Amino acid sequence: MIDVFDQNLVYHHRWRAARQHFQHDFLFHHNAALLQERLGDFTRPFQKILEIGCRDGHFTQLLRQQYPNANIAVMDWANWLSQDQAKRSFSFQIMDTEVLSFPANTFDLIVSNLYLHWVNDLPGYLAQIYRCLKPDGLFLGSLLGQDTLSELRQSLMQAELELCNGASPRVSPFAGLQDMAELMQRAGFTLPVIDMETVRVTYRHLVEFLRDLQNMGEANALIARRKHIPPRLLFPKAAKIYPQQPDGQITARFDIIHLCGWSPHESQQKPLKRGSGKNRLADVLK
After folding, report:
1. Which segment of 57-61, 158-162, 276-280 scores lowest on mean pLDDT?
2. Average pLDDT value over all residues in the chain
3. Span 132-142, mean pLDDT?
4. Nearest CA to 206 among 250, 166, 246, 174?
5. What are the beta bridge partners of residue 275?
6. Maximum Cα–Cα distance across the chain
7. What CATH fold (topology level) applies to the domain 7-264?
């Protein structure tokens, strides 16, 4: 496997963002509400829960409200949590590798809010999540999808090509919807459901947008990036290339892929055996 992301840099970005993220977490809070709403579709109680990539603990608090008696463990590269949250009713663990160091069959529910797009070995990580779930346990996660930041990617590439006769990768590659469907099945999840929501955010200027990405902890961490300082004219030129609205503002695109899958259990619904149908499709269509 070839690593795509510099995990030391991901670690650095998240620690830096943890100090000043409070005005820049709107996307994560928005998606946390969606994840909580999806959990409301399941009437069963979850007693042992793991959250991967907890950031400031906002989604964790929603989980605590929804499952007041649950044992909740949370993980992140950085400690985003305030002093008040130090008295929290959940356990916190710093992640320093892409390894889930929990025994098999530990959790009823594993959740992850917009973290998995920073994992190098995503197939392997999904397999680890699967291993950590108890039979009939639920995984509910989300990550940024294929066309996220597409306008930014194209603008920076075109600007750098014109200035330098070559371009450095400055925006992460993101998985597609079909990719994630196949990875969920390969990891072993049953009854998988994968869908996508597109969120568009308006900014006054490209600099404001880039500052937001940095303070989210979502800045460029690609191993293949050029390590030297970019040309001084790169971002002003990219700002001119970036598609603008009539009022001069710009729109950033975030595709959010939602993942839902279960650890196998004999009580789950199973497809009928091939050839067991009693009605012809042609008769039904008539």
Report:
1. 276-280
2. 90
3. 97
4. 250
5. none
6. 70
7. Rossmann fold (3.40.50)
User: How would DSSP label each residue in the chain?
Assistant: ----B-HHHHHHHHHHHHTT-TTS-HHHHHHHHHHHHHHTT--S--SEEEEES-TTSHHHHHHHHH-TT-EEEEEESS----TGGGG-SSEEEE--SS---S-TT-EEEEEEES-GGG-S-HHHHHHHHHHHEEEEEEEEEEEEBTTTTHHHHHHHHHHHHHHHSS----S---B-HHHHHHHHHHHT-EEEEEEEEEEEEEESSHHHHHHHHHHHT-S--BTTS--SPPPTTHHHHHHHHS---TTS-EEEEEEEEEEEEE---TTS--PPPTT---S-HHHHH-
Can you give the residue ranges of every domain in the chain?
Answer: 7-264
Q: Are 255 and 149 in contact (CB under 8 A)?
A: no
